[in-house]
Design goal:
Layout (H helix, E strand, L loop, with lengths): L3 E5 L6 H13 L4 E5 L6 H11 L3 E5 L2 H14 L9 E3 L7 H5 L6 H14 L5 E4 L2 E4 L8 E3 L1 E4 L1 H13 L6 H18 L13 E5 L4 E4 L1 E7 L18 E7 L2 H12 L11 E6 L1 E6 L2 E5 L2 E5 L5 E5 L3 E4 L4
Parallel strand pairs: 1-2, 1-3, 3-4
Antiparallel strand pairs: 5-18, 6-7, 6-17, 8-11, 8-15, 9-10, 9-14, 11-12, 12-13, 14-17, 15-16
């Protein structure tokens, strides 16, 4: 039995430089079973093979799309006999939000060493449960896509703008994200529309089941089951349910309020004009050609094609900080 199974996607951007170090680490640690896939379509077969070595921990090494595909297959594929092993995520990718939520930051090899140490010495106090977001079009019998962080409205447009216009410049991630944020502020404050700036968000209707609707144009739409939102803490005190919803009107002042609250760790704690927080177990997103991004994968709501978000049963994860 392997203590740790490591699932790597060599084609993810972060692995272009990291993978030789990962392979060297695995070669010198016989209790790590390393499986590499060439595409996310191979993840199901990878998990079927990994289940045969019965690992104590499953580690995912890849970008957001790899993590999203692995979680979907792990939850829906029933590859393991009973409860699957807890999942750890290496900090490898553009955003690393899931890794951050689980305490995996910094050098991915150091994080992998930490995972192996926990597996060897005992996982008590490190296994936590998180619900996943199940995204579908609401059709009966359809196979949902699972993840933990969804961005929509202006946030999705900004992510796509950063991915298509700024990442190709080859700048460091931090610089790229800062430039994208500056472009958003310029377009919001000055009202400038240009091919070189993020587009204006399309109107959306967001319905939190049994709690009403929010309609308008939004600079941010976040739905997550992570315990830490993109801008800070969480939506404590705004209903119950694993889905945390944050929506910010497409106006400069509400966006600045939300950002300042994030800097001081007040996101979700205080009511703010133009900033909406809710918690629930089911959300409907409706719009005309409005994109949402679930852990790196793009989906689009259109006329008669709403996006439905629900929660799954809890899934075990490995938190690196006790």
């Amino acid at each position: 039995m392997a203590l740790v199974a490591l699932l790597s996607n060599p084609r993810s951007t972060g692995n272009r430089s990291l993978l030789p170090r990962v392979r060297s680490f695995c070669a010198s640690h016989s209790d790590v079973f390393h499986y590499e896939v060439e595409s996310v379509e191979q993840i199901g077969e990878a998990l079927r093979t990994i289940s045969r070595v019965n690992p104590k921990v499953l580690v995912v090494n890849g970008g957001d799309g790899t993590v999203q595909a692995a979680l979907t297959e792990l939850y829906l594929g029933d590859y393991f006999d009973g409860t699957p092993p807890p999942v750890a995520v290496l900090p490898n990718g553009k955003t690393n939000l899931i890794a951050l939520d689980l305490g995996a930051v910094g050098d991915p090899i150091v994080a992998l060493e930490r995972v192996l140490h926990i597996a060897r010495t005992g996982m008590e106090g490190h296994v936590v449960e998180r619900e996943l977001i199940a995204l579908s079009d609401g059709a009966e019998g359809g196979r949902p896509v699972l993840g933990m962080f969804l961005g929509g409205a202006g946030l999705a447009d900004t992510i796509l703008y950063c991915r298509n216009k700024i990442y190709p410049l080859g700048l460091p991630n931090g610089v790229s994200h800062a430039l994208a944020f500056l472009a958003v502020l310029v377009s919001l404050v000055l009202g400038i529309r240009s091919a070189f700036l993020p587009p204006a968000a399309n109107p959306l209707r967001v319905s939190m089941m049994r709690q009403g609707q929010i309609t308008g144009r939004f600079s941010l739409l976040i739905v997550t089951t992570l315990h830490r939102l993109l801008l800070g803490t969480g939506t404590n005190g705004y209903g119950t349910g694993a889905l945390q919803l944050m929506v910010v009107d497409q106006r400069p002042i509400p966006l600045l309020r939300a950002l300042i609250a994030g800097v001081f760790g007040r996101v979700g704690r205080d009511k703010m004009d133009g900033v909406h927080f809710e918690r629930g177990d089911e959300i409907l997103i409706e719009g005309d050609r409005s994109s949402v991004i679930l852990d790196g994968e793009i989906f689009q709501a259109g006329p008669g094609r709403p996006i439905l978000l629900k929660t799954t049963a809890p899934v075990p994860f490995l938190r690196l900080a006790a």
